[in-house]
Write a structure and sequence with these properties.
One of its GO terms (biological process) is mitochondrial mRNA modification. Keywords: RNA-binding. By secondary structure, the protein is an alpha+beta fold. The protein has four helices and six strands; from the N terminus they run H-H-E-H-E-E-H-E-E-E. A hairpin with a 2-residue loop joins strand 4 and strand 5.
């Protein structure tokens, strides 16, 4: 009986020191990299104005023609492209619109950012230039003749 009473007091003391128990250990606000304060995280610099716009939040059913017609209301669209999945052919949820002038591009952002297209809220912003990727490295050393992977 005394042993049970001692165990209860130890458990009560542990609970008083840590009100949520194991949950506080697992989900505490620590200095782990995922819990960095907002001031320490780097935000990308704003994109420079250009005639090319990045449009995100597109529906899977949005087509290139639908994107073009939605943005043509704000200026001369030179090119519009919805990026699609190779296997399914559906939209990946983003695309690009290129205008003839900077003024048309600014009007396109002003007119379509935060608006509905095919039932989804879309976001339009100036497109950032693509980052250059390093050349792919083969998994086989040079000079190795592996006939299984030859075409």
């Amino acid at each position: 009986m005394a042993l049970r009473a001692a165990a209860k007091t130890a458990a009560t003391a542990a609970t008083a020191a840590s009100p949520r128990g194991l949950r506080s250990l697992l989900f505490s606000t620590s200095t782990f990299p995922f819990n960095l304060p907002q001031s320490q995280t780097e935000k990308p610099p704003p994109a420079e104005p250009s005639t090319n716009l990045f449009v995100s939040g597109l529906s899977k059913r949005t087509t290139t023609e639908g994107l073009r017609t939605a943005f043509e209301k704000f200026g001369q669209v030179v090119d519009a492209k919805v990026v699609t999945d190779r296997a399914s052919g559906f939209s990946k949820g983003f695309g690009f619109v290129r205008y003839g002038s900077l003024e048309d591009a600014a009007a396109g952002i002003e007119g379509m950012d935060g608006k509905f297209l095919d039932g989804w809220v879309i976001f339009a912003e100036y497109a950032r230039p693509r980052n250059t990727l390093p050349p792919p490295q083969n998994s086989f050393p040079r000079g190795v003749n592996n006939t299984r992977f030859q075409s």
